[in-house]
Amino acid sequence: MTAEPDGPEDRLRRFATIWSRAVFPVTSTSSTRPEFEAHLLPLARRLSEALRARAFDADAGKAVGAALVDAHCTDPEALSRTLDCVDAYLVLYCGDDGDQEDLRARCARLQHAMAAGFARALRERTLAEQEAIAQAALQAQGVVAQALHASEARFRAVFEGAAIGIGMADLEGNILQVNGALLRMFGVSEQTMRSRNVKEWTHPDDAPQTWRLYDELVRGEREHYHLEKAFYRPDGTVLWTNLTVSLLRDADGDPQYQLALMEDTTERRLLNLRLRYEATHDALTGLPNRTFFFERLEKALGAGKGQRFGLCYLDLDGFKTINDSLGHAAGDRLLVEVADRLQSCATAPGEMVARLGGDEFVALTTGPDTQREVDELATRIMNALLAPISVDGRELTVRGSIGIVEGPAGERSPAEVLRSADITMYRAKSAGGNRFELADPEADARAITRHGLTTALPTALERGEFFIEYQPLVHLGDGSVRGAEALVRWLHPQHGVLGPDRFIPLAEHTGLIVPLGRWVLEQSVRQAREWRELHGGAEAVGPLRINVNLSPCQLTHPGLVQDTVDILERTGIEPDALCLEVTESALIGADDDLLKPLRRLAEMGVDIALDDFGTGYSNLANLRRLPVSILKLDRSFTQSMQQFPADPVDLKIVEGIVSLAHSLDLAVTVEGVETGAQAEQLRILGCDTAQGWYYARPGPPERLHELALVDATG
Questions:
Q1: What element of type H or E holds 523?
Q2: Beta-carbon count within 10 A of 33 CB
Q3: pLDDT value at position 712?
Q4: Phi, psi of 48 (to 5 degrees)
Q5: Residue 342 vs residues 331, 363, 402: alpha-carbon distances, Å
Q6: Given the DSSP bridges, would you call strands 175-178 and 165-170 parallel, antiparallel or unpaired?
C-alpha cells in the first residue's frame, strides 16, 4: 500500500533526507549517502512515533541516540547537527495533527533523551577502547622478554593512534609520557605538559572523592577509578573529561606507574546544559517553567523542621480581552514585560518567579519567616503592575489576582499547595480582582466539593441519582389542592440528599442544566398524568397542574419549545396541566427573541409564572409585554404576616401587587406560607394560591395524592 502524495510517509522520508544530508558529511561510515539515508529512515520513524505517542517514552530518544553511535556518527558535530535538524523539522514534518505547544515540548524532551543515549553509547564505546588500551599496556609489561619489542610496538601504535587522551605518570605525579590527543585537548606542547605534576590539576568543581581515590590508587589500595573531572586550560577555559586512571605494577606486583585515559566531554556537557535549560525554562519569558518550579517547590516542602514556605499564584485580570482585541503577538509582548517586572520583585535569597503557562505566574519564597515575607512579596507584585505597559503604541493597564498559600514545610504535597493557591486566586478574582487573598482551608474544602459535584453531575444523571419532590399548591379560597411545584433533588452517594441550591448553579455553568431540565420536565409531566388518572380526571378536585422551574440557560436553548411539545405528546396530557416558572431576574430587559419561545408555549396553553416577583428591578409596566399568566410573590414580602398584626407597609405593597395583577388578568401565588395567620391575611388580600410548610413540605408524589383525596372527600 503506497502513501498518498505528501502523506505521512512522504513527510517522514523528507525528514530523513534532510537529516542524512546534514549529518553525512561528518560521519565515518563507508556507506553512500542514499544508503545512510535508508539507515536513518527507521530511526526517523521511531522519533515520529515517540513524538505522537499518548504517553511520552524517553527510551525511544535514547535508542535513536545510541543508534547514531552504532552508525559511526561519533563526531560531536554529528550529534549537534542531528539535534538541530530534529529541533527544526521533526514537529514540522511529523506533528501536524496535534497540539503544537505540547509537540514542541515533547520534541525538546526527545532531544534531551537522544543526547543522553548518544553520550551513554559513546561512553561505553570509549570505555571499551580504554579497556583494550589498558589490557595492551598490562600485556606490554608482562610479556616474555623475547616478545617485548613487538609488544612495545603494539602499545606505541595504540598509544599514539588513539582518539582519546592518554598520559602516564610516576607515583609522585610527575608526567612521563602523553599522546597527541591529550596535547590537543589541553592545547599545550609536550614539553609544557611534561613539566606539570598531576597534583597541580585541581578544579573548584572536583567531586569530593576525587583526590581520595587518587591517593588510594598511588598507595596501591585500588587498581583504577573512573569519574568526571574538569581541568583548566592555559587560556582559562574549562575542559570537562571522563577520566579513568589505572595503576600499573611491575613484574613483582609493586605499584610503578599510573595511566590516565581522558575523553573530552566539554561539548556534550554544554549541550546537556542547554537542553536542560530549554526543558526547565519558558521559551517566551525566560522564566523557570512549571517543571523547574515544581522541582523547587518539592525541595522547599521537603526542607527540615522550622522551615516555612510562601507561594503567590498570580493570574492577570482581563488578559484574554487583550489577546482577542490586539492579537497574540501583542499579548506575548505584554507577558514578557510582566515577567520582567515580576523577576525584579523576587531577588532575595530563597525567592523565585516562574511562569506556569498562559497568563499564570507563581512566586515562591522560603525561609523561617515567610508569614511576613510572602505578604511583602505579594504587595511588591501588585505595585509592580501599577504602571501601564506600552504595547504597539498603546498604554495598557494590567491588573492581577493573587492567591497566597503559606505554611510550614513537610505538611503538604506540591500538588496540594498549588491547588490551594489556585482556588484562592479564583476567590480573589471572583471578589473583583486586582487584589490578593490568603488561603482558607474551609474555602478550599468548599471549592473542592463543588469541583467534585461538577465532575460527578454527568454520570449522576445517567445513574438515576436525581429524584423529584413535590410541594402542593393550595387554593386560598377553598383550601383545595390545585397542583404542585416540582423540586429536583440529588441523592449523592457520599453527601446524601442535596437541594437544588447545591447543584443547579453547577449544572448551569457546565451546560448540563439542559438535559437535567428536560428530564425533570418529562418526569413531572408524567406524574401529573398519573395524578389525573388517579383522581378520575379534572372534575373530581379541579385540574391538577404541575409547576416546573426553567433556568435562564434553558430559556435560551433552541430546543425548549420542541422538547416541551414532544414531552406533552408522549405523555398524552394537555398543555394546561403544565406551568413553567421563570425567575423575574431572567426576564429583566428581555428582548423579543428571548420572549418568543415563552409566547409560543403560552399560545399552546402552557401557563407561564413569573417567579420571585418583587426581587428584581423590572418596570411594572413590562408585565403587559411578558407572556405570563401567574405572578409568584417572593416570600420577603409576606414574612411579616406570620405574626399578628402584620407590617402595614407590607400589607399595602402586597395589596397593590395583587390589585395590579388582577387588573392584568394575572393570578397571584405566594411562596413561603408558614402560619395560619399568614394564610388568612393573604386570603383577605385576594391572593389566589399559596405554598409553604403550613400546608406541606416538599415530599414524594404519594403525599400530594393523599392531600388531594382529603380535599375531594372533604
A1: helix 513-534
A2: 15
A3: 46
A4: -60, -45
A5: 16, 8, 13
A6: antiparallel
Contact in structure between 337 and 461 (CB atoms under 8 Å): no
Report whether 480 contacts 711 (CB < 8 A).
yes
Closest CA to 487 of 496, 475, 498, 474: 498
pLDDT recorded at residue 157:
62
Pairing, β 308-317 against β 255-264: unpaired
Measured CA to CA, the distance from residue 414 to residue 292 in angstroms comes to: 12
DSSP state of 162: -
Query: What is the phi/psi pair of residue 317, to 5°?
Result: -85, 125
Give the C-alpha separation, 311 to 297, whole Å. Answer: 9
Residue 398 buriedness (CB in 10 A; 0-12 / 13-18 / 19+):
buried
**Span 521-579, pLDDT tens digits:** 999 999 988 888 876 554 444 557 899 999 888 888 899 999 999 999 998 889 989 99
β-sheet bridge partners, residue 228? 242
- What is the widest separation between alpha-carbon atoms in the chain? 133
Among residues 465, 473, 470, 527, the alpha carbon closest in space to that of 490 is found at: 465
Helices 441-463 and 513-534, axial angle in degrees (round to 10): 60
Whole-angstrom distance, CA of residue 472 vs CA of residue 448: 36
C-alpha cell at 507: 449544572
Q: Which three cell numbers stand for residue 208?
A: 569530593
Instruction: Write down the pLDDT at residue 236.
Output: 87
Per-residue burial over 367-381, b = 16 or more CB atoms within 10 Å of its CB, e = otherwise: beebeebbbebbebb
Using alpha carbons, select from 409, 399, 443 the residue that is nearest to residue 423: 443
The pair phi, psi for residue 33, each rounded to 5°, is: -65, -40
**CA–CA distance, 376 with 367 (Å, rounded to integer):** 14
> Across the 714 residues of the chain, what is the mean pLDDT of every consecutive 10-residue run?
62 87 82 86 86 82 85 81 85 76 83 84 80 68 51 62 83 90 88 89 90 93 92 90 91 90 88 85 91 91 84 92 88 93 89 92 90 90 92 88 90 89 90 88 76 84 91 90 91 88 85 90 91 62 78 88 92 91 80 86 92 66 81 81 75 87 91 88 91 89 67 50
Q: Which residues pair with 599 in a beta bridge?
A: none
pTM for the model: 0.53
